[in-house]
Amino acid sequence: MKSQAQVVVIGGGVVGASVLYHLTKAGWRDVMLVERAELTAGSTWHAAGGMHTINGDPNVAKLQQYTIELYKELEAISGQSCGMHLTGGIMLAGTQERMNWLKMVKARGRYLGMDLELISVDEAEKHFPMMDKKYFVGGLYDPVEGHVDPYGVTHAYAKSAQIGGATIERQCRVTDLQQHPDGSWDVITEKGTIHAEHVVNAGGLWAREVGRMVGIELPVLAMEHHYIITEDMPELVGTQEHLHCVDFEGEIYTRQERHGMLLGTYEKACVPWSEKTTPWDFGQNLLPNDLERIAPELEVGFAHFPAFNKVGIKKIVNGPFTFAPDGNPLIGPIKGLKNFWCACAVMAGFSQGGGVGLALANWMTQGDPGFDIWGMDVARFGDWTTLAYTNVKVRENYSRRFRIRYPNEELPAGRSYRTSPIYDRLNDRHAVWGDYCGLEHPLWFAPSKDLAYEDFTFKRPDTHDYVAAEVKAVREGVGMIETTNYGKFEVTGPKAEAFLDKVMANRIPAIGKMALTPMLNQNGKLIGDFTIGRWAKDKFFIVGTYAAETYYLRWFENYLPESGCTVRACAMEYTGLALAGPKSRALLQMLVSDELSTAAFPFMSFRQMDVGTLPAFVGRVSFTGDLGYEIWVKAEYQRSLYDLLTEAGKDYGLKLFGGRALHAMRLEKGFGTWAREFRPTYGPDEAGLERFVAMKKADFVGREAVGRIRAEGGGPLRLVNFAIETTDADALGDEPVWHDGKVVGWVTSGGYGHSVGRSLAMGYVPKALAKEITGFEIEILGERRAAARVEGAPFDPDGARMRA
């Protein structure tokens, strides 16, 4: 066995083999895979092998397209068959709501180049004659769907990697990992120690155990999963291979397996496997059958597909495979662990494994994954993702895999275990809560406890008028919102300004001021947006997206000096309340001795001041686009701050507002947000942030790339605002944008602008169309609705109100 390698990949399933192959494809030859048993000897060998391109995250869908297209390349290189059956697939809808969901899937597929077709129930029966059409109303046909041989695919990756120079060591369990001061690793195995520059955790069922070797607890859990294979069916003899089929109402999937059918389910009564530790001696084993647990799903499946009743069951498979809390993979580097990488929780390995391998290999060899993988980045989870939280969210995700997730639906698992100090105060005011990074935050406020609910829908919810009242209160008077769910950082020290000047694209503010700034990667693409408040020479308070806290910290550590600057995440240490509206200044002035006039405390001012008796940071800024103030206090002061503002606000008609109203108001102002308008896909000029990139200042990360891109026209896309002609449904995000009968772009955010009385959306279109006003359409629930580009912000386009 080799004693050293540039990279050691731990785990010989389909994902580890894909990473190994893609590293060789990227030009790294001194790479090695170590596997505790034989290739596929985890969850890969017993997988059903399904592959499909559809995914709720368009960026993940692109990687799934890549994975399926890759199989022919692997076969050509390796000479190993992948056993690919590209049968096509059909998703069946049993209700009109499900058809609405399928319309959204088809629409999203348009700008991804997918050839999806909505079909009637009669057409569905022609595609899949086993169905009893009385249970369905229609479906969606996808020609790029099918299944592969798990053994063949894994060995095709492995052989291709070996042809490219890689080494594979079987029957070689890793027992420990130890890091050297230079960041390299000793990979200690049963056969000896391998010294490696990089380590990749592709441990699959053992990903947690590998993570624990380096002191981390990865949010991953294995679930038991059943499928059955029937005896031969007369209907299948001498016929063309049947399509893959998903029956959402039955929560089952089925496909042909030789002359029988395979049927699997994501059952409600799901069971985790090996919840705390995975035994190392678990090999190519199956778990005991438990057909009684999946009997309700089987009963529905046998009714919906009557041919299953005519034959017996030849084989029952119950095997474990892994999930993250949201069902997407965990890939990328780990904060604080140099050269340690993850490629875990890839539950759909034969749809996603190729894309995961490509992204990670790009990241390792080029310093960037090469495309937007935020939805799979391991950094999207933080310390709040405990073992118990992972358990309840994975079980929820598994049991809901084939159920509709409505845009206004909040899922119940893992709720109310993280709350701010004023949770009870807001609950008493009939707050309806949302979940963000496991933290409860108010979405809207009901008039009474009895009305603190809403029906789930793809159209405008029945809370529309309540949110409208909150927006009106802000625009005409003063509103207050809790802002605890923002990410916060303290950056201090004599080198703090120089550090921020390096990682942020805008100029660093003077003492007593704030600045809005993007953060860019080396390719000049957006990887964050922040407000920086400076309250002393060497002291900065930074606000950004809480979900990206670990993501930001991982980036910051690449540029921190060895001494003289400290970055400290303090999201839950500092809690927040914000005031907004034309009466916000008068209200706050009652409680502070500092002069708040525009002359004394203009827009984008930032200062320490006492609010009543409470020490606070106060910044004159508001995401509503109105006159407003953000007030940040230590957690122990938030209850007192809330009571103080609420009492003083009685004279001004102060009204609480939540995240739904804030979303509506930021759309009215054309304000983008992270993970929607601002993602690593886009450059600052494309996202409308060019004025926040200070090209004349000293060098910063991404400056050279921005200069090069600007010299070539600033990038191919532009973010624009739309007003849509629609009456009962609004854009949500990821809808295609049409122009003159062609799909030209996509929506990033949408909703109703209560202050302007229009349905609004933000989205990207080609630069050549960014000045057009008319000719646009946005597809909502299968209908193309006329849309017009709005020049500037739909509300207060010159920004006079927030600067008043």
Q: What does this protein look like?
A:
The chain has 804 residues and is an alpha+beta fold. Among the domains are: 4-82 and 148-219 and 326-378, FAD/NAD(P)-binding domain (3-Layer(bba) Sandwich), CATH 3.50.50.60; 89-147 and 222-323, D-Amino Acid Oxidase, subunit A, domain 2 (D-Amino Acid Oxidase, Chain A, domain 2, 2-Layer Sandwich); 486-652, Probable tRNA modification gtpase trme, domain 1 (Gyrase A, domain 2, 2-Layer Sandwich), CATH 3.30.1360. 24% of the residues lie in helices and 29% in strands. The chain is built from 17 helices and 38 strands. Strands 4, 5, 6, 12, 13, 14, 15, 16 and 17 form a 9-stranded mixed sheet that branches. Strands 1, 2, 8, 9, 10, 11, 18 and 19 form an 8-stranded mixed sheet that branches. α2 packs across α5 (150-163). The chain is globular. The model has no long low-confidence stretch (mean pLDDT 96). InterPro entries: FAD-dep_OxRdtase, FAD/NAD-bd_sf, FAO_M, GcvT/YgfZ/DmdA, GcvT/YgfZ_C, GcvT_C, GCVT_N, TrmE/GcvT-like. It comes from Lichenifustis flavocetrariae. It holds the Pfam family GCV_T_C. Residues 367-420 form the FAD dependent oxidoreductase central domain. Belongs to the GcvT family.
